[in-house]
Design brief:
This protein is mostly helical. About 95% of the residues lie in helices and about 0% in strands. The protein is elongated and about 60 Å long.
Amino acid sequence: MTTSTQFAPGRASVSSAVMDSDLEEMLCGVEDQLGALGDALRLRDSHAIEGHAQQLHRALERAVAGFSLAARVGEIPPPLRHRLVKASGQVAAQRETLVRATMALDRAIDILLPEQASAAAPVYNNRVARGLSLYSN
């Protein structure tokens, strides 16, 4: 009986350490993809933007699932929590950059092709509005 009690704390700490290293790996994946997407945005490389955005989406899904599980099972270490909040802020900043770029593109289209732009704008703007509403919740 004493033996099982002695192993329980060790097991919990080993499990916690494994969970922390998994969370660390997931968070590094998000941070790496955020950096790569930021670089692609600065270079205005549309193919790289698309690829990194998809990879970031997958990394975020894994991280959200992992951090949600960790929060249910125990406590997320403060340094990882801080990095997760920072990454969330970076996602919001990149999203805002894309919105501004989209608006600038819409204005340029309106100037260059006023008749065609006015016909296409409602469809495009509705699509952008729907996409932004997904992130506002």
